[in-house]
Design brief:
Shape: globular
CATH topology of the largest domain: Rossmann fold
Distance between the termini: 37 Å
CATH superfamily of the largest domain: Response regulator
Helix content: 40-55%
CATH class of the largest domain: Alpha Beta
Strand content: 5-15%
Length: 217
């Protein structure tokens, strides 16, 4: 069973989500927090750090998330670097999606369809992190905010860096991107590292959001 954590401030919604997610085969809810700030505080305890070290991902309710929670999320991501954060949202609202991405959210799920969407990510023929990045593509493309996309490209990437970035947009893992581009895995990682540095981002989700916003792919 794959352990995961749930972060949701609405108690009733948290209970419903917990019950619904029990229907997803292969996962087990092992920790439940009312806010990211609560989780950040709990990380001072060895038991919490041990529990999260076993979790591959956490589900985070975003619609009622406050700015303090997003600041706390940055700290949580620094302390638990392997943890994939999947944000739960109702609608593709840029005012919710973009700050969440900047804070370190790796992908998005819909509240009503969290269980089947999570199952689809887990069954995807790629890593969970890469699969999560494809949800960023779907949600950002669904936004109705015409100001989201900009016509200018403020950062100049090499053609190979752009090719690798577009592989991320399509949800390919580093290994699949390297194979498709005919380069070694180490070379792909080097290009991705360079892309992150040039774009000023720290995750595949943030890189995908940037690529979509500036129409790089």
């Amino acid at each position: 069973m794959l352990p995961f954590a749930l972060i949701e401030s609405n108690p009733a919604l948290s209970r419903r989500l917990g019950m619904t997610l029990r229907t997803v085969s292969g996962v087990k809810l092992v920790a439940d927090y009312a806010s990211v700030m609560e989780l950040e505080t709990a990380l001072r305890e060895r038991a919490t750090r041990r529990a999260l070290s076993q979790c591959e991902f956490a589900l985070l309710g975003l619609n009622e998330a406050h700015a303090q929670d997003l600041r706390a999320l940055r700290q949580v991501k620094l302390r638990v670097r392997h943890l994939i954060i999947l944000g739960l949202v109702h609608t593709p609202d840029p005012a919710v999606l973009l700050p969440a991405l900047q804070a370190g959210v790796d992908g998005f799920l819909s509240y009503p369809s969290a269980a089947p969407q999570l199952l689809a990510l887990l069954e995807a023929d790629t890593s969970l992190r890469a699969a999560a990045a494809t949800t960023v593509v779907d949600w950002l493309r669904a936004t109705k905010d015409t100001a989201f996309r900009l016509s200018a490209t403020p950062v100049l990437l090499t053609q190979r860096e752009r090719d690798v970035l577009c592989c991320l947009v399509r949800g390919l893992s580093y290994q699949l991107a390297a194979a498709q581009l005919g380069i070694s895995l180490d070379t792909a990682r080097s290009h991705i590292k360079s892309v992150y540095k040039k774009l000023g981002v720290n995750s595949a989700a943030q890189a995908v959001a940037y690529a979509l916003r500036y129409e790089l792919c």
